[in-house]
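From the pipeline queue, job 12 of 40. The input is one protein chain; the requested action is below.

Action: predict structure.
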Amino acid sequence: MKRQRDLSAPRQRGRLDVSYDPEAFGRFSESIAMLLGTARYLVVQTVVIIVWLALNILPPADWQFDPWGRGLVLLTLVLSLQASYAAPLILLAQNRQERRDRAAAELDRQVAERTQADTEFLAREIAGVRLALADVVTGEQLRDQLNALTTALERLEHRLDRLTSETADARPQP
């Protein structure tokens, strides 16, 4: 047995350094999941199984590659292998979709918060404009005030004319 120089650290076993691009693998798993989730795939798989069964039941026993008498072991193995790879790939695709959905929901929440804040701001601004407009004189009110002033001025002018004429009458004539 070979001794290590540093006994405080555990021995490292030889590892295969397998590296892969998680994004590329995720896209690959999504493409597989999208294929396995189609009606076309189910129809093709059903046709393949029917052909497989026909080729292993109808011909003579010497020509069968997966005899019925052995319980179609090869067919079972192929379908089990397909299921053992399909399930994790589908789960990986679902996890990626869930992350995208979560990010989209977060973005939607932020947009909704901004929209609500903008709406509240605009509501306050509209209320302020309404209050400011409540103190503004309308055209009708202005006309009524001008008519009242004109009437008052006409009365004052009429009184002034009367007073002027009375004063002129009361002065002695030369």
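Job complete. Residues 22-134 form one domain.
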